Structure formats: C-alpha cells, structure tokens
Amino acid sequence: MLKVRNLSISARETLLEGMNAEFESGLVYGIVATNGSGKTTLLRILAGLTKAQSGVVYLEDNGEKLDLVTTRKKIFYYETSDWLDGNLSALDYLKFVNASWANNGADIDAIIKYWGLEEFVKVPIRKYSLGMKQKTILAMYAASNTDYWLMDEPMNGLDDANQKRFIGFMEEAGKQGKCIIFSSHQNDLLHDISDKVHYITNKKWMDTAGGI
C-alpha cells in the first residue's frame, strides 16, 4: 500500500494542503485537477523524484515500511514524451525498462503486439507522431511489470481506438493487482475506468468534487 501523510505542496504559492491518502493494490485511482493545481508535482513526489516540502510518502507491505531501493523497484512513472531520446527507438526503451524494473520478466513481443508498435518499434523516436510516442510510453509501463503505476495525462495524443485499448489495458492491470494512479482532464472517462476518483480543489484533496 502506498501511503501519504500530511502532505503539502508549494511552488510560488501553496497548491495542496494536508493531503492524507492510501492507495491499495488492484485499484485504479483517477485524479481530476486543472493545470497548475499541483497534480504533476504530486505524481513526482509519489514517484520519489521530488521531495515534499512537508509530510511523508512511503510504501508499506504487511505493516512494514519498505526501504528506498525496494520502493523504487515497485513504482514506475514516466511523465511525458518530452523525456524520450529521439535517437533511441521504442524497442530500446522497452528492453531497458524490462531489464531495469522487471528483471527481464515481461513478454516484450506480446507488449509490442498489444500496442501495435510493430511497424515502428525499431525506428528512431524523432520520427514518431505524438500518438506513437504515447503508445511507446504505455508499453513501457507493461514492460516494467511494477506493482504501482503513476501516469500523468496518459491518454494524451491517443485516438479513439487507442483510448479504448487504454481502458482495457487499465482494467486488465487492475485485475492483475496493479495499483494505478493517473491524472486526466477527461472527467467522464475517469469515472468509467476508475475505482476511485479524487479531486484537487481549493488546495484540498477531495473524494468528490464538492467535499472531502
């Protein structure tokens, strides 16, 4: 279980105050928030990439807090296609992620087929469209085979067919026991695929649009 206790986020101003939350295995969590409300910073903190100004975030297993090395092997977060190196290919990234997080335990060929990457998987990423880059990132989540997936606007650039594929991908991952936390502006779709939806509103973490 991923636990958050008394977390506050500040930039030029306070974005989030006193967040307390628990994220359980096998559930999909949606985060609804406007731009500039702190959702990307929150995901970075949950992933261990950014230090919280106050509060704590940690993984717990059978009542025991996990150490940092173990925690980072259990969480996968790839924020944006801007992080991709244009000189590498989707296959390069899938092999790296599979080796680094899943100890080569994921079926790369099956992942490539599921996301329809066959035609461009060995092509340099600088030649990819936004949709191709986004499918590569989602395929990387499958290649990581981690217990916790953190996603920032994961449907960015996906056409209708691939949005449907994404929904199936999330549903199957949840059945496999993954804990998935993702943000989106598409509120209606979030309700369709999330077990729980949270809102960042007026600097507060809320379970509904109107109240904590």
UniProtKB/TrEMBL annotation:
ABC transporter domain location: 2-212
InterPro entries: AAA+_ATPase, ABC_transporter-like_ATP-bd, ABC_Transporter_VariousFunc, P-loop_NTPase
GO MF terms, alphabetically ordered: ATP binding; ATP hydrolysis activity
Keyword field: ATP-binding, Nucleotide-binding, Transport
Domain of life from the UniProt record: Bacteria
Xref: Pfam families: ABC_tran
Name used for this protein in its record: ABC transporter ATP-binding protein
Organism: Listeria rustica
